[in-house]
Design brief:
single chain, mainly alpha
Amino acid sequence: MAALGGMFGPADNLPPQLSEIGSWLPFGAAVEAFQATWQGEQVSLQNWASLAATTILGIGVAAALFRWE
């Protein structure tokens, strides 16, 4: 996930298909959101959607599996 998101180099250096997949993964969406914010640009809706979906999925898994017992 980190390699597709751009941790080891710019995601632009990847083939177009892998770059697109990386932009939808949580790490890639966060990197793009931080870059846009740093440059004073608006964060794209795709990044917000990816991060929101990851958050909702994580909350659902935590609610289903976590028990205080």
